[in-house]
Amino acid sequence: MAILKIARMGHPVLLQKCEPVVDPGAPEIRRLVADMMETMEDAAGAGLAAPQVHVPLRLFVFRVSAGRVQEDLEDVPMGNTVLINPDVELLGEERVLGWEGCLSIPGMRAAVPRAGRVRYRGVDCDATPVERVVSGFHARVVQHENDHLDGILYPMRMRDFSLFGFNEELVRAGAV
Ligand code: NI
Asked: Active site includes 145?
């Protein structure tokens, strides 16, 4: 396995629409997924999309730690998970603000409006279909990562830029 180099905002690979994965079980896809999981863990991230490691394909990895789960929501901790060729359906019209960071925008955080609940479908590396309805942080991370596959970074979803800043300053100000 290997730690991959992460593209930062400004790199054109982050702005392109990614191509579907033709063979989710191909050895090179399994290797990419394993390397992306290792890279996500190394960077202490909650999610990582293929274009962030310079591969413009429709897949991402993510995890939902126990500390992120809100008990009143249909949200359970998830270990490292891959979703290939995802389709994400936003459920309901309501949008909720929540803090997000991105490994391609290091050191910063913002409050971003997202659907509180989503249904997503896709496949894993065994081409096994995945379908889940989730809310809370799980719904947020899936929307964030899925956006990467369409060249959308979280600042492009923001409405209130007063809720955008460097982690250290936001912590100092007691904003997060
Ligand atoms: Ni991101």
From this structure: yes
Contact 7, 53 (CB under 8 A): yes
Over the chain, what is the mean pLDDT? 95
Q: Check pLDDT > 70 for residue 116.
A: yes
Contact 98, 114 (CB under 8 A): yes
For the chain, percent of residues with pLDDT exceeding 70: 98
pLDDT of residue 72: 64
- Residues with Cβ within 8 Å of 105's Cβ and at least 6 positions away in sequence, in order, are 8, 9, 153, 154, 155
Tokens of 64: 């939902």
Give the SS3 label for residue 113.
strand
Q: Which CATH superfamily is domain 12-172 in?
A: Peptide deformylase (3.90.45.10)
Please tell me whether residue 147 adopts helix, strand or coil conformation.
helix
Q: Find the 161 Cα to ligand 1 centroid distance in Å.
A: 17
Report which of 1, 130, 142, 133 is spatially closest to residue 61, judged by C-alpha positions.
Answer: 142
- Residue 67 pLDDT exceeds 90: no
Collapse the DSSP code of 9 into the 3-class scheme (helix H, G, I; strand E, B; otherwise coil) and give the result.
coil
Q: What is the DSSP string of 44-83?
A: T-SEEEGGGGT--BSEEEEEE-GGG--TTSS---EEEEEE
* Ligand 1 centroid, distance to 26 Cα (angstroms): 25
